[in-house]
């Protein structure tokens, strides 16, 4: 067993897997229209004393031992060390075509696209590469030159946010599947010409609209409570009342408190009609306001 593992290590686990996959494809031909590349983690038990320097699966031609260490846990065990499996599968039945182990703290953004670029000739496929948003970067887009690719554009990009928040005429949208419509936009991110497709789901839009109504209703209840607390308070002067109203209104996400004025309240030392020229013991002010939207 030990000699066999040493032989596999020397030959390269990824290279052996690639040759096996190629032989299987020759024996059992199947169409491949797209390559799906992704990574997942596997936690381990026991003591692993890996080196401090990270080692990646595509740092060179010589095989390198992966580093079993802590990282982002996809199987929800961040308390344990792990290693990462990088896998490239065919869209036909999810058949694996390329396997590469990686460090437990590897970055998908820095690993998956270089892995594809390194083994593209071995894969011998002119298929479309499908990656998630982690692979979308200026460097990776340039590294994918020669590939056809489909990637999700991260919504954190300034250009993507502008597109998501924009308003477009109805005729600009194209019908896709039932309940979906899309908008095509030409982009040049990272110096690479590309086509972005903004997809809108009718069901998702209804869910978000209903969620917004619920949030507004909850916020209205909180705004009414805030208004009630202000109306029950006494203030030393009109300026204090207005300042408190403005502060409370600024904390409301969907509503505002509208100032209507103040009502003066005088406190005297005895009951009954005050004598002429008798000064009150104290003067306070009650706020007059209403809830606005």
Q: How much helicity do the residues have?
A: 25-40%
Mean pLDDT: 86
By DSSP, the count of extended strands is 11
- What topology, given as strand order, has the largest sheet? 3-2-1-4-5
Number of helices: 8
Q: What's the assembly state of these chains?
A: single chain
- How many independent structural domains? 2
Globally, the shape reads elongated
Poorly predicted residue ranges: 52-60
Q: What structural class do you assign from the helix and strand content?
A: alpha+beta
Rg value? 32 Å
Residues in β-strands, percent: 25-35%
What's the main sheet like? 5 strands, mixed
Keywords summarizing the entry:
3-stranded antiparallel sheet; alpha+beta; 8 helices; 293 residues
Describe the SSE topology.
Blueprint: H1 2-11, H2 13-27, E1 34-43, E2 82-90, E3 96-102, H3 108-118, H4 120-123, E4 128-131, H5 138-143, E5 148-151, H6 158-165, E6 174-175, E7 180-187, E8 194-201, H7 202-231, E9 234-235, H8 238-250, E10 256-267, E11 282-292
Parallel strand pairs: 1-4, 4-5
Antiparallel strand pairs: 1-2, 2-3, 6-7, 7-8, 9-11, 10-11
Summarize this, please?
With 293 residues, the chain is of the alpha+beta class.
